[in-house]
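Task: sequence design from structure.
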């Protein structure tokens, strides 16, 4: 069996405040986290955080430059902290990224490879942002992928539906938290 890790991506206070906890999202994510821990699967948190003086921000990157202009996601901003309902525990890894993909501007690939992890379970906010970008890059890096549809959230429900039903299944096993825990 593959060596797996559960990625909990961009579930930060400001992002949860923006996206909301619609239909029990954090509770479902918490079940996935607890299930991973019970199965001995490492839980790796991925957060976006920009340096206070923002040297990594380019005006050519619409999303990152918009966040920077709004004063979001600086390393010292309380909104950048992982939401306390699903926060890390001792032994969990927190990776900081500087772009949309969990791999961009982070040491995630180094962490995964040093632990011989070859299979990723993707969760996070948003499906059309961090989940999609990480899915693309992880597939190109030859990771086996699982996406937990109800542990992903997007501001656009139709986009979430399209991605989880049409696009993501092309390179990932797409399932629910309950089905994943039962498997």
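Answer:
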């Amino acid at each position: 069996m593959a060596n797996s890790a559960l990625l909990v991506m961009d579930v930060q206070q400001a992002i949860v405040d923006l996206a909301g906890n619609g239909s029990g999202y954090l509770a479902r994510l918490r079940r996935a986290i607890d299930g991973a821990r019970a199965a001995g699967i490492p839980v790796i948190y991925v957060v976006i955080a920009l340096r206070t003086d923002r040297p990594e921000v380019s005006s050519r990157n619409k999303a990152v430059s918009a966040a920077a202009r709004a004063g979001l996601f600086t390393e010292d901003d309380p909104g950048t902290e992982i939401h306390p309902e699903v926060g890390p525990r001792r032994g969990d890894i927190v990776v900081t990224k500087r772009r949309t993909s969990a791999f961009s501007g982070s040491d995630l690939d180094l962490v995964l490879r040093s632990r011989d992890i070859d299979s990723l379970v993707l969760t996070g906010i948003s499906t059309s942002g961090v989940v999609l970008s990480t899915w693309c890059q992880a597939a190109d890096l030859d990771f086996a992928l699982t996406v937990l549809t109800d542990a992903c959230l997007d501001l656009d429900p139709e986009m979430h539906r399209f991605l989880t039903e049409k696009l993501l299944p092309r390179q990932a096993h797409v399932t629910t938290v309950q089905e994943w825990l039962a498997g």
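The helical segments are 13-19, 25-38, 62-69, 108-114, 127-140, 157-167, 177-182.
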